[in-house]
Amino acid sequence: MVAEKVGCAVPVPLLMLAEKEGNEETREFFDLTKGVTYTVNFPELVGKRCLGVGIPGWLFTVDVKGNMNLFHLNSRSLIQLPHVETLQGFDYDYHDDYEYYVEKALLSSDPHTTDDYILMINQGDPNSLAYWKPTMKTFTTVTHGRAYADVTWHDGQFYGVDFEGNVIIFDFRGGLEPTSGKIVQGVPSEFINSMQLYIVHSAGELFVITRDGIYRHPETNSYGAKEFIVAKVDVDNECYEEVDDLGNRSLFLGYSASLAVEQYGCRANHIYFTDDCICAFRFTEKGGGKDMGAYNLFEETIEPFYTDESYHKFSPPIWIFNTPFSV
């Protein structure tokens, strides 16, 4: 997604803050371009894990009972999805927390403008991809036996990246419904080195990004990103090159869909990231939300963009793109 300069109808990057105990119906949204926080009443989101899906205004939600939906922040439209237990690979004896099971969700297009859209999700364990269309009763799982870190969409195709650095392309053009994809070499395994991976398509270029610090240190019990590495992948020639200059673009990474943005109000050549360390959410007292910042890709430095605290056990701060709310 490459947005234009900020105007009254142009979506801007908003940090949707974590649900607050004792004030669950009210959600706060920090406007990165203006430095202001909007407070909006959303009883529909109480007790739900929310993920940004890459289309302005839309969220993927799942509650502690396994009910999944798509929700639109402005119109408050609700699209019911199949239950978590219908997902192939889900085992309640092993996955006893519904709200943690889906780690990423991505829409191909806006459900308000077309019925021909696709929702792709990444199931947290075994990190498989599954997709759903409005005409389907259940999700369809693709490419068994491969663990995916992230997925992006461009021009009728989903591009997934697995934990070995391979890029897998799923072609939905012409009404196709693939259950397997074309595998190409993305980045080598030594490039990954136990890091978190993301994949972004922007302006005809495909990027795979690594992030360190996602695991708690065994001695200090701390975690946090210190370095990001960006590789531009050539899927035709199956090669890559490291880059430290994204031009006017910024990357937005975390539990929401990974996006590239060219927009006034964002620092160019920066990676804006939110906390996606699953260990922090499940096994620390406050939950996740600590590890956020803006990484200068050229200078390799990190600066904060939000200085207050925002923690939660399963619904952390996430990036969404939406028209600014009224103050």
Automatic annotation (TrEMBL):
InterPro entries (alphabetical): F-box_BR-signaling, KIB1-4_b-propeller
Superkingdom, natural source: Eukaryota
Residue ranges of coiled coil: none
Pfam families, sorted: Beta-prop_KIB1-4 (PF03478)
All copies of domain KIB1-4 beta-propeller, residue ranges: 29-296
Listed name of the protein: KIB1-4 beta-propeller domain-containing protein
